[in-house]
Amino acid sequence: MQELKPIRVFLEVAAQQSFVGAATTLGMTPATVTRLVAKLEDEIGQQLLLRTTRQVSLTSTGALVAAKYRTLIDEFDRVHTTITQEAHPHRGRLSINVPMSFGQRMMPSLTQSFQLAYPNIELVIHMTDELVDIVETQCDMAIRVSRAPVDKSTIWRKVCEIPRRLVASPGYLVQVPEPKTPDDLLRRSCLSYNHTTSPETWVLQKGSDKQTLLAGSDIISNNGDFLFGLVRSDRGVALLPDFIVAEGLDKGRVQRVLPDWEPTPLWLSLYYPPYETLPPLVATFTEFFEAFLKDIDGFRF
Questions:
Q1: Do 90 and 121 touch, CB atoms closer than 8 A?
Q2: 201: which of 20, 82, 169, 239 lies 20 to 30 Å off by Cα?
Q3: What does the alpha-carbon distance between residue 104 and residue 128 come to, in Å, rounded to a whole number?
């Protein structure tokens, strides 16, 4: 809205401490930015910015105005977005956080199909293997491949379980005695998937017999594809989800280790901020995502 433009321009100048920087971000000329800030100062009747040849800083009044206006503008934008989405449920922008390995395999085809179905919805896809704070990062939703969640402050929607397999390369299995039980695994050769510096804990079950063991600490990574690359290079054994290892198993590039022992599966979940009800864009993507995975060939659950 035009009457809010001077406020938005002032807030951008305050954030960047630069008229030129704000002009570049906003797609305006520095002269236009200067004029709009001057207009706001005239309306308020106070100087808001101190201008020197080297920098721009807030006056005490400017700091107060910036703090008050930022809260009001953020709330205005939130309400405006909500109203717009309710009036046009298939129009808008959706920000989604996705784990790296899953995202690289699934999101290109899923995104293409989604935008064919909903051409007026813009997608912002961020990929990371970290479990993000979805409120702090201001994502609309996230896709997660993880253990069963324990976070009670957000919303989790379980889509399905994803089996995992213990795998090693044929070359590695030639070098070491074939393990018959989990106790036979060489701990140093057990590659750990973890977001911390601690080794991964593996839980394996055969009938009523369950064993828990600690993987090695020589290599710990938060990326499954990296660990799979090490497995294929004869480095050791890793516990990885089916969507990473399925093709390698089919082509004989890797083999299952302890095939009679089943690892605890992971959850494929949709992860939301604490919405009272799902926003229309989020609900639309959720429905599409679940239907897409049911139909797609080659994705194993």
A1: yes
A2: 169
A3: 11
- What is the sign of the dihedral through the CA atoms of 10, 12, 18 and 20? negative
- Gyration radius from the chain CA atoms: 26
Listed in sequence order, the DSSP H helices in the chain are 5-16, 19-26, 30-44, 60-87, 100-117, 170-175, 224-232, 242-250, 280-295
- pTM of this prediction? 0.65
pLDDT digits (tens, 9 = 90+) for 172-226: 999 988 899 999 999 999 999 998 899 999 999 998 999 999 999 999 999 999 9
d(CA 249, CA 231): 12
Give the type of residue at 270.
L
Distance CA(254)–CA(239), nearest Å, equals: 12
| 10 CB neighbour count, 10 Å cutoff | 26
- The per-residue pLDDT for range 23-44, each reduced to its tens digit, is 888 888 989 999 999 999 999 9
3-state secondary structure 167-209: EECHHHHHHCCCCCCHHHCCHHHEEEECCCCCCCEEEEEECCE
* Burial of residue 55 (number of CB atoms within 10 Å: 0-12, 13-18, 19+): exposed
Question: Counting beta carbons within 10 angstroms of the beta carbon of residue 260, is it exposed (0 to 12), middle (13 to 18) or buried (19 or more)?
Answer: exposed
Greatest CA span in the chain, whole angstroms?
A: 83
Q: Which of 221, 218, 217 is nearest to 240 (CA)?
A: 221
Residue 251: left (phi > 0), alpha (psi -120 to 50), or beta?
alpha
